[in-house]
Write a structure and sequence with these properties.
ligase; alpha/beta; binds beta-alanine; Pantoate--beta-alanine Ligase, Chain: A,domain 2; five-stranded parallel sheet; Rossmann fold; binds pantoate; 9 helices; 2 domains; binds adenosine-5'-triphosphate
């Protein structure tokens, strides 16, 4: 029997596998946010793979690659507790056997704004390793957190633009009871800095109570300005696709330094009126 097919839906029908494989990519130092991704992956996948790899390619020369927390034993325990089937924790040479790759991803215009403006090359390095890890693990589903909202948008874009044949699933941000977005980098904060860092989620929460763009930004800006321990890198209001804000679903995003630690956060909001 020879099938001749003409549409991508038909192609998906003939290439569909019996088992649904789900992947969660991480840099380790796992917390409840990562565990939520694993639970979603477990719920939708027959097989769950967690990757743990601190990717040198996405760190700038003055960033925290060397001091990034590495807690492999505890991470494996967390994966076990979530019923993960496979933990893939490769060494650098395993991912980049020939040294740094000469062919890499270009993150396009969306990779140049916000995080991309502050961290040149970050998204190209991130997309390159995500693409490699997708090729190595060959999943049907891949789970990423909304905490890294621009990253999630870029990975979705790459999957569509390059026909990667993987469904990218976004998972809402998991927060500490006091509102702080969970992040491996929260470990760097002193008790005073952690207190100051609460201004980020407080500002976003307050901003999101407004339905007019300028009012949302002004409210968030004021809360950030009132916290001397926080140095804002950017506060931005965008459409839900990170484009210009219009009436409807939008996103309020912040990046700031608290001491030496750079944190990001974002929340959804709905605008009645654009800026
Ligand atoms: N609080 C969170 N809620 C939901 N998903 C999260 C949260 N924090 C991280 N993730 C997601 O977990 C995946 C792995 O992220 P990563 O290992 O970089 O953790 P991280 O806490 O974001 O670390 P970092 O502090 O270095 O930014 C990403 O898809 C990221 O968006
Ligand atoms: C997606 C990722 C694992 C790629 O290194 C990283 O950027 C992260 O942990 O968010
Ligand atoms: N959590 C996003 C990866 C990074 O900051 O390098």
């Amino acid at each position: 029997m020879t099938y001749v097919i003409h549409t991508r839906d038909e192609l998906a029908g003939v290439t569909k596998r019996a088992v649904t494989r789900a992947v969660v990519m991480t840099m380790g130092a796992l917390h409840e946010g990562h565990r939520q991704l694993m639970r979603e992956a477990r719920r939708r996948g027959d097989e769950v793979i967690v990757t743990i790899f601190v990717n040198p390619l996405q760190f700038g020369p003055n960033e925290d690659f060397d001091k990034y927390p590495r807690t492999l034993e505890a991470d494996i325990e967390a994966c076990r507790a979530e019923g993960v089937d496979v933990v893939f924790a490769p060494a650098r040479d395993e991912v980049y056997p020939g040294g740094p790759p000469s062919i890499t991803m270009n993150a396009g215009p969306l990779g140049e704004i916000l995080e991309g403006a502050s961290r040149p090359g970050h998204f190209a390095g991130m997309l390159t390793v995500v693409h490699k890890l997708l090729m190595l693990t060959r999943p049907d589903l891949a789970f990423f957190g909304e905490k890294d909202f621009q990253q999630l948008a870029l990975i979705r874009r790459m999957a569509v633009d390059l026909e990667l044949g993987v469904e990218i699933v976004g998972v809402p941000t998991v927060r500490e009871p006091d509102g702080l977005a969970m992040s491996s980098r929260n470990r760097y904060l002193s008790p005073d800095e952690r207190q100051a860092a609460l201004a980020l989620s407080r500002a976003l929460r307050e901003g999101a109570t407004h339905t007019e763009a300028e009012a949302a930004l002004t409210a968030a800006r004021k809360i950030l300005a009132d916290e001397p321990g926080v140095r804002v890198d950017y506060l931005a209001l965008t459409g839900a696709d990170l484009g210009a804000p219009a009436a409807g679903p939008a996103r309020l995003l912040v990046a700031a330094r608290v001491g030496a630690t750079r944190l990001i956060d974002n929340v959804p909001l709905t605008l009645e009126k654009a800026a």
